[in-house]
Design a protein that fits this description.
This protein is an alpha+beta fold. The chain folds into two domains: about 30 residues; about 325 residues, (Glycosyl)asparaginase (Glutamine Phosphoribosylpyrophosphate, subunit 1, domain 1, 4-Layer Sandwich). It is built from nine helices and 14 strands. Strands 4-3-2-8-7-1-13-14 form an eight-stranded mixed β-sheet. Strands 9-10-11-12 form a four-stranded antiparallel β-sheet. It has a two-stranded antiparallel ribbon with strand order 5-6. About 10% of the residues have low confidence.
């Protein structure tokens, strides 16, 4: 009788332990090792064909898998970010590299930046026209020069010297982007049309059409616990005067700090520059002890109150992720440390 009672008690204890472990497992937060974006704008199901949606989801999945493979192989977060953004720059679906939009003069002028959260080193290029993968040129600036940003022909000369792939500008031509420029010129001969889409007024005119093309970005957390962030873009359709947005500006569109988070932004660049969005998120986390999610939302709310729109991705050193946006949708995705990939597009995905 006593023996049976002892067995019963032991069984009860075991059951309680198993229940407790199950509860912990169910409430355990997922640890993310990568988050990406492909641009934010007016993205709705009614305006997206099934074929195009499938193509975007496949492209984002490939990008995440590429970055995840690099991290699992023990490569650095910088390697993972660069490799991931390569896949997006090589895909004409996105406004970066091969899919870059056209300026008013019929050129493709691209910007990119990358930052190492461990060393706080950073590199960027702006207004380049012959570099196949601007994100690699940005990394070369960071690692092979004493500078942070290079622009135009100087950046191209440096990239060539650094062994970065150079192509004929014709490589970047796509009919869809060219047609987009012609439509923009017809509709608005005064004011350039933003790549992420908006209908808000600015001092120089009114933006009255939604030309949504996707700036790309990635943030990664490697096995050593180091963060890196990168962003690449073709800027805005029909832009003039050598305009540069937030993407290549460290602290505005791109930032990484192991003590806080890695951030990559997409949206109305002028507002992101004025709010120093990426660094502001890091500062709120550092000085106010805010979570990456709360800080990201608070800063994006500031952008919205000023009249800007767009979104951002952020990942902290503990693997917590944030992907807020104030548009109809944002191409985005995550991968956890065990390889679970999730790709989202719409606000109610």
């Amino acid at each position: 009788m006593i023996k049976n009672l002892s067995n019963l008690k032991a069984g009860a204890v075991l059951l309680l332990c198993l229940s407790a472990n199950l509860a912990v497992a169910q409430t355990k937060e997922e640890k993310y090792v990568m988050v990406i974006h492909g641009g934010a704008g007016t993205l709705t199901r009614k305006n997206m064909s099934a074929e195009k949606e499938a193509a975007y989801r496949a492209a984002l999945t490939l990008a995440l898998q590429t970055g995840y493979n690099a991290i699992k192989a023990g490569k650095s977060s910088l390697d993972a970010v660069e490799a991931t953004i390569h896949t997006l720059e090589d895909n004409p679906l996105f406004n970066a590299g091969k899919g870059a939009v056209f300026t008013r003069d019929g050129r493709n002028e691209m910007d990119a930046a990358i930052m190492d959260g461990k060393t706080m080193m950073a590199g960027a290029v702006a207004g380049v026209t012959t570099i196949k993968n601007p994100i690699s040129a940005a990394r070369a600036v960071m690692e092979k020069s004493e500078h942070v940003m290079m622009v135009g022909q100087g950046a191209e000369a440096f990239a060539k010297q650094a062994g970065i792939t150079i192509v004929n500008p014709k490589y970047f031509y796509t009919k869809e982007r060219w047609d987009g420029l012609q439509d923009a010129i017809k509709e608005d001969s005064v004011k350039a049309v933003l790549d992420h889409g908006s209908k808000k007024s600015m001092k120089l005119g009114t933006i009255n059409h939604d030309y949504k093309f996707g700036t790309v970005g990635a943030v990664a957390l490697d096995q050593a616990g180091n963060l890196a962030a990168g962003t690449s873009t073709g800027g805005m359709t029909n832009k003039k005067y050598g305009r540069v947005g937030d993407s290549p500006i460290i602290g505005a569109g791109t930032y990484a700090n192991n003590a806080t988070a890695g951030i990559s932004c997409t949206g109305w660049g002028e507002f992101y520059i004025r709010n120093v969005v990426a660094h502001d998120i890091s500062a709120m986390m550092e000085y106010k002890n805010m979570s990456v999610a709360d800080a990201s939302q608070a800063v994006l709310d500031k952008v919205g109150k000023m009249g800007g729109d767009g979104g951002l991705i952020a990942l902290d050193a503990k693997g917590h992720v944030a992907m807020p946006f104030n548009t109809e949708g944002m191409y985005r995705g995550t991968v956890t440390e065990d390889g679970k990939i999730v790709v989202l597009i719409y606000k109610k995905d």
